[in-house]
Amino acid sequence: MSSNRDGTLRDSSRHGSRHALVIENLTKTYAEGSVAVLEDINLRIDPGEIESIVGPSGVGKTTLLRCLAGIMPPTSGRVFFGDREIRSPIAELSIVFQDYGRSLMPWMKAGQNVAFPLEGRGVRKSTRMAAAERYLAAVGLPGMSKKYPWQMSGGQQQRVAIARALAYEAEVLLMDEPFASVDAQTRFDLEDLVLELRNEFEVSMLIVTHDIDEAVYMADRIVVLAKNPASVIDVVDIPFGRDRNQITTRADPRFVDARSRILAQIRK
Predict the structure, then answer these.
(1) Pure H helices in 100-211
(2) What is residue 33's predicted lDDT score, i.e. its pLDDT?
């Protein structure tokens, strides 16, 4: 999405040209190379695909996400979006954080929070607020634009954070433990919401999670990391396609097989 000179939004289709996010031989070290966190990571997230990264606590999943977003430079290796190397944050990638309470500005109402990133792109107020209303409705919060975050439940706040990422019309959502701070039922609802949004908007997603069941339920492919330093030890293709259900998919023997395979790798 981009803006015209008059502050309106140009008519860009999410179903048009898309690009892959490609990670080549990414390594990250700290303390002048004495502490290796990530080593030789290679990944590819194709347009419209959901990929998940799992691994033990402290493996470096969030560090990897920051390198992909251009927030933190890798020590070596490269990250590409299409044919463009990512060296700093770009508009086509948006992050949904675990701590929705800190990612939303409490003095702004929900609609203002969603519309805020568009202000920096020169989009006029009436247009960006209309976009906020549209994407709040898309995440199941119609008519909630006038509420402050502190007036909303945790699940509703995270929906606002997702709506903000959608309003920016990034091609890839990077999600860092996005449902870890909500209760189990809300988590199931948000998982299904994200799958519906992928189908509606054809946005690609990379989801970092500790929850293996969540990864198997949501992802098309799961990358398993081992630590000291973190490296890819397995890549698991998930066979369910886009039509998934919290009851039948989780009861499928292939779900159990994938979960057991990933758990065995992590517990080695």
Answers:
(1) 100-103, 110-119, 125-138, 154-167, 184-201
(2) 63
CA atoms of 211 and 193, how far apart (whole Å): 17
Tokens at residue 154, please? Answer: 């945790």
Domain boundaries, the chain: 21-92+170-266, 106-159
Q: Look at residue 116 and give its three-state secondary structure.
A: helix
- The pTM of the full predicted model, rounded to 2 decimals, is 0.86
Structure tokens at 240: 């369910």
Q: How far apart are CA 159 and CA 166, in angstroms?
A: 10
Least confident of 56-60, 63-67, 175-179, 184-188: 56-60
Q: Virtual CA dihedral for 67, 72, 74, 75, nearest 10 degrees?
A: -160
CA distance 260 to 268: 12
The CATH class that applies to domain 21-92+170-266 reads alpha beta
Rounded Cα distance between 229 and 175, Å, is 22
